[in-house]
Amino acid sequence: MVPPRRAAPDAFSELVQAERRPNAKADPTNPARRPISEQVANRFLAMIKSGNLRSGDRLPTEQQMTIAFGISRPPLREALKALTLMGVLESRQGGRYTVTDLSFSRLVTPFNVLLSVGDYDVHEHFEARTHVDLEVIRLAVLRATAKQRQDILRHAVAGHSLHEDPVAFRLLDIEFHQSLNDAAGNRLLASMAQGLYDIALDIRRLASTFPGVIAHSVAQHIDIAEAIMAGDGVSAMSAGRRHLEHIRDTTITSMTQTAKD
User: Domain spanning 122-260: which superfamily?
Assistant: First the structure.
């Protein structure tokens, strides 16, 4: 006889046990403490990662979860909404949430949705993006086919004609970075790179309208592309680092401008 699959009450029990463990709650005196909704969302993701929640599991009621976490309904609902937008949870009839199929693209692509429940930190963002994007460039140098190298160079050089058209350049910029992701030959890493790219796009849209920003980005794209064409990993990663620093700095400038407005 086939044993019945694990039922949702097990998930609820784990929630309660996690809440009762020592040091389970964040120290309220810690200045780096994250919003309650983000802590709850991260706890759900940790349970999924550990296998305590699996595809098809139905979560407890909102009332049960507020008791388990010791929080009110508003931050719980914010966390559930973020996870639903990420595609990790789905809401079904009766108001109960169910864990989705948990494909890797659901879990790693929309970082911006998860981060939207907390404060955006430009330095934290670009620290992560630097590690991921430079590895993408390194792998692209090693693995890109002749056609993929040509695609990278074509997207880079095409930017010369778009210095006065920020919207068109932003579309081309997406294609350039996607061509790097494709050439790296690692789907998971590409999804992470795309997720990090998508964060704070509204701020970077403003940066692309500043004088000289597009021209600078185009020149850096070409430096990266030419190094990849030459198979020079050191130069490609160095050019990639300069490009990311440029994006970071213009993002900070945009944030300052927005704050003034």
Answer: GntR ligand-binding domain-like (1.20.120.530)
